[in-house]
Amino acid sequence: MQIKNIYKRIVTTFTWPILIFFLVYKWTVYNNLPFTIFMFFATIIASYEMQNMIYGKTDDQKAKPLIPFYLPSVLIIAAYLEYTIFPGISLVQIALMSMIVVTFFIEVIKGAEEKEPFSQSIQKIAYTVLLIVYPTYICTFPIMLINISPQGPLYILMLFTLVFGNDISCYIFGMLFGATSRGVFKVSPNKSVVGYLGGLIVTPVLSYFFVTLVPGMPEFSRFWCIILGVLIAITSDVGDLIESAFKRAGKVKDSGVIIWGRGGVLDSFDSFLNSAPIFCLWLLQWSYGILQV
Fold first, then answer.
1. Which of 35, 70, 119, 205 has most Cβ atoms within 10 angstroms of its Cβ?
2. pTM for the complete prediction?
């Protein structure tokens, strides 16, 4: 059974980069619209999974979201329009703040109708804002990255390569050598320190070889390749652990069942969600080329 699960995980892990390669490097019509469509539907599914973890299956009206789970995906559309058609308008920020203000307004109305008016306002608003930010707002960063520079598709490929490379490295190192170093992270006792150290070693190496060997990539120094690899390894691992915390809070084993061998969309994208903003912001500040476009 364990070998079967390992097989499923490895196959799925290597399938994702192939799919992303075609989405961002081959199917680039209409300003990378296929990638945007992919992210749009992925965030809808992921938001549904996140809603189930936050609110659970309950008839308690206090536990219901203040906005529909699919509404935050409007941010993906706003990001595409902002970075391709209306670059002078901050559509993502407008959409984000509009949803937050709408959340406040809905609570002002609905909170007054409760038996104990507004007793759960802070909790409900906090949960709803989390649902807006994670995963959808975070996924606007890759939309920005792929459209802000001619090298955008290569950067997206690099991000996915490092994240999934770190993920599979952690898994393999942990499985082979990590039996005695498990239990350190209480949020995910089966994860091992050796596994994370393996990812911390492999990911900077992947970063260096990606920049060195892939045609069209700007020339980063070895130092910055290593730094970027370390950042992605650390942020990916934190993303994996925080997803475990969410699942523990929601009392579920997996966020969903849609991904073969891995569970839900959030189970496959947890590391990516935590790494994507850091990767994008790092490139915006230090890459050779993006700021000159």
1. 35
2. 0.88
